[in-house]
Design brief:
heterodimer, A: 288 residues, alpha/beta, five-stranded mixed β-barrel, 24% strand, B: 277 residues, Rossmann fold, 8 helices, 9 strands
């Protein structure tokens, strides 16, 4: 299959979207990209000298449909570092193709971003976790059934067969662990930072108990409906990634209780201060 | 008739007629060779080379290191049809297109299919450069080339997969390798969609599930071959260790380099095998 018109259009769409955003930014040059998950979007309010760009206004951007996700970029300074924050993201379960889901990742790359902090709300499958914990993502298992790189490859974006052996930067994980020791929540309690493997599923149905038991046996520590496609694209684009899951509920197959999206958002809200403190410390200290 | 309205059987027939018009050889053995092994084409006698682009309904390959032509001729006196370059689902083809050439092989009289591929070693006893006889596979592509209405002329609705890789042909391959002093592993091939390589966590999972090697091809081709009633022999060249086993990144160049290094051994085995299949 030769490169089709639709595929060429993908690259051009990325460039047009990036160029529109760049036009709104003046001389701001974001270094860090932040993708904020369910209930974690408030961090965007702390960006200084902020320019806000609604996804609706950006050429070729899809619009997020899920509750609890706003739909805009906030660009400015966080802890003095130039950042571009995605407040709201796109999910495979909304019906977008994986290529659409990861479109903003390539747009941020086009704007010069080479470091990403990707966050999400996830169910904890590891019995050592509890709701309200934060988990550093050490690695992932792609159980979505999709991959954003299927189709002809664009060498301008990355290689045909990207390596995934260190999709979540070791150096970034080490730094985050060091910084976590300093982080305290509003209640004065020290942050407990877990570390584990994130299983990405398509959703939108939550997992059955049998499925959760299976995923836990297969080596998963947390399960969620985002992140995996974005991290595949980020690896393809040569970007370094820090991944943080907020464990909003426990998802142990044998002990599963009914769950609503409202509960997820409530726990994410409770965990917010520690989460925000950790991300800010990371952005302050991390090198590109 | 517009292509969309044609049955698969009609498209297969047109491809078959075209190939028959180009050569008098009537192949009995089909060869689908993976990354780096296309060089076998050079040792095919009475070779007729047919670019995929010339064959009605054939897709065209895009990946580096994969040419795109059928070579029909003889190996050790045995009439063969070789695909030089194959199609992968990660290129964006549907499983039905990836396996279309297998349907055409069946139509032109092929009875046995030899598939080879480059694969990452999951089994920690393996080393890059090992050859692995495929005993069985795990379909982890999230797909199946037979989804859709079944055309009974092509095969049954629910094809058996209990012996996808012929026991008899495996025994033959073991004997042949032994007589040449070639060490042959035997294991389970995990077929994935790709194109990103696997993460270490995924590789640990596949090991737990019984996989010995992992790759991005073969599975749809073998499912269709079995649907069509072909006997299958599969051999993987372990070109690298899968993610997380060694503390180093994976790259396509390593795959090509290892394939190059073991090429002569692999070719010898394949050439010995073909007349016996």
């Amino acid at each position: 299959m030769s490169t089709t018109a639709a595929e060429k259009a993908y690259l051009e769409q990325i460039r047009e979207a990036a160029s529109y955003i760049a036009g709104r930014l003046g001389d701001r040059k974001p270094q860090f990209g932040l993708v904020l998950g369910s209930g974690l979007g408030d961090l965007a309010e702390q960006v200084a000298e902020a320019v806000s760009i609604a996804y609706d206004d950006i050429p070729h951007f899809p619009v997020s449909t899920v509750e609890g996700h706003a739909g805009r970029f906030v660009v400015g300074l966080l802890e003095g570092k130039p950042v571009i924050v995605m407040q709201g993201r796109f999910h495979y379960y909304e019906g977008y193709s994986m290529k659409k889901v990861v479109f903003p990742i390539y747009v941020m790359r086009e704007l010069g971003v080479r470091s990403l902090v990707i966050t999400n709300a996830a169910g904890g499958m590891n019995r050592g976790f509890k709701a309200g914990d934060l988990m550093l993502i050490s690695d992932h298992i792609n159980m979505t059934g999709g991959n954003p790189l299927i189709g002809p490859n664009h060498p301008e974006l990355g290689v045909r067969f990207p390596d995934m052996s260190e999709a979540y930067s070791r150096a970034y994980r080490k730094l985050a662990k060091e910084l976590a020791a300093e982080v305290k929540g509003e209640d004065g309690e020290a942050l407990k930072l877990q570390e584990g493997v994130y299983c990405g599923i398509s959703g939108p149905a939550y997992m059955t108990p049998a499925e959760l038991t299976m995923l836990a046996r297969l080596g998963g520590d947390a399960v969620g409906m985002s992140t995996v496609g974005e991290v595949v694209a980020a690896s393809h684009g040569g970007m370094k990634v820090l991944g943080i899951s907020c464990i909003t509920d426990m998802a142990i197959g044998e002990e599963l209780e009914p769950l609503t999206h409202e509960q997820v958002v409530a726990v994410a809200n409770r965990t917010k201060p520690k989460f925000q403190a950790l991300v800010k410390a990371f952005v302050r200290e991390a090198a590109e | 008739m517009a292509e969309a309205q044609q049955t698969w059987a009609q498209r297969i027939d047109e491809a078959k007629e075209y190939i028959w018009s180009r050569t008098k050889v009537r192949p009995q053995v089909g060869l689908i060779l993976g990354s780096g092994l296309g060089v076998l084409a050079d040792s095919i006698e009475e070779a007729e080379v047919i670019p995929y682009g010339d064959i009605p309904h054939f897709p065209v390959s895009t990946v580096e290191g994969h040419a795109g032509e059928l070579v029909v001729g003889k190996v050790g006196g045995r009439p063969v049809l070789m695909m030089k370059g194959r199609f992968h689902m990660y290129e964006g083809y549907a499983g039905q297109m990836v396996s279309f050439p297998v349907r055409v092989m069946k139509a032109i009289g092929v009875e046995t299919l030899l598939v080879t591929n480059a694969a990452g070693g999951i089994n920690e006893e393996y080393a890059p450069g090992d050859l692995m006889l495929i005993r069985d596979h795990l379909n982890m592509t999230n797909n199946n080339p037979l989804i859709g209405p079944n055309e009974p002329d092509l095969g049954v609705r629910f094809p058996d997969m209990s012996e996808a890789y012929s026991k008899k042909l495996r025994a033959l391959a073991r004997e042949t390798a032994e007589s040449r002093g070639i060490q042959l592993r035997e294991g389970v091939y995990v077929g994935l969609m790709g194109p990103s390589y696997e993460t270490p966590a995924e590789i640990r999972m596949f090991r737990m599930l019984g996989g010995d090697a992992v790759g991005m091809s073969t599975v749809p081709e073998v499912i269709v071959a079995r649907h069509a009633g072909l006997q299958v022999l599969g051999i993987s060249c372990i070109t690298n260790m899968a993610a997380g086993i060694l503390d180093q990144p994976l790259n396509h160049q390593e795959v090509m380099d290892t394939a190059e290094r073991v090429k002569s051994t692999f070719l010898q085995l394949v050439k010995d095998l073909i007349p016996k299949l």
